[in-house]
Design brief:
Length: 179
């Protein structure tokens, strides 16, 4: 599975969000019942829907299922009232955690769900004895960069033209011992 797949937002979702905004439908959600927990087989359908919503080249259900069998991968889902609204994944590479993805369905953004996912994943990596975490993020994706910075990730370099549309990737690292 390639980590550097496209992570552009689906333009149709942006349109949906704009319409919701015009119609006054983007009311604050009640996230009191939000649960962050390990991904299970029965979550694959919901996680795949988040993938399709968020990315131009979503991972297949089979790829997601394979991740469940990968001893060096950990995935957490965000479940709200029995709906999978987001997820985060990490690969363990010796004592480093490589974030594969963080995604929140566009209907549920801006409600601290991405925040909770990253917070819990950082905690999990620390509890499993990892010393650092890393990821790549599009240079234009300031929303995700802001989120990662909140949890200790710092810019450490640039991979020029990393993505297929030649956009640069920002490399971020998080030294867990400094938290
Ligand atoms: C990135 C993403 C996961 C954030 O999820 P979210 O649930 O909307 O984020 P939250 O509401 O938890 O916000 C967490 C932090 O993200 C940043 N953030 C969120 N929305 C933002 C916005 N519109 N503008 C700037 N920063 C923003 C802020 O730092 C925010 O914390 P703050 O409000 O205390 O400043 C979500 O936008 C997403 O799924 N995007 C598409 C997929 C993607 O790009 N994934 C990252 C790939 S590397």
């Amino acid at each position: 599975m390639e980590k550097n797949r496209e992570n552009l937002n689906n333009p149709n979702q942006d349109l949906t969000q704009d319409l919701n905004s015009i119609l006054g439908l983007d009311t604050q959600l009640n996230t009191n019942n939000l649960i962050i927990r390990p991904m299970r087989k029965e979550d694959i359908e919901g996680v795949h829907m988040v993938e399709v919503d968020c990315f131009d080249d979503p991972w297949s259900k089979k790829s997601l299922m394979d991740e469940l069998k990968n001893n060096l991968a950990r995935y957490l889902v965000a479940e709200l009232d029995s709906v999978i609204v987001g997820y985060v994944g990490v690969w363990f590479v010796v004592d480093e955690g490589h974030i594969t993805n963080v995604a929140v369905h566009s209907n549920y953004r801006g409600q601290r769900i991405g925040d909770r996912l990253v917070e819990e994943m950082v905690k999990l990596c620390k509890s499993e004895g990892l010393v650092s975490m890393t990821l790549e993020v599009r240079s234009s994706n300031t929303v995700a960069q802001n989120l990662y910075r909140k949890y200790g990730f710092k810019m450490a370099g640039v991979r020029k033209e990393y993505y297929s549309d030649r956009e640069d990737a920002i490399i971020m690292w998080n030294q867990l011992s400094e938290l």
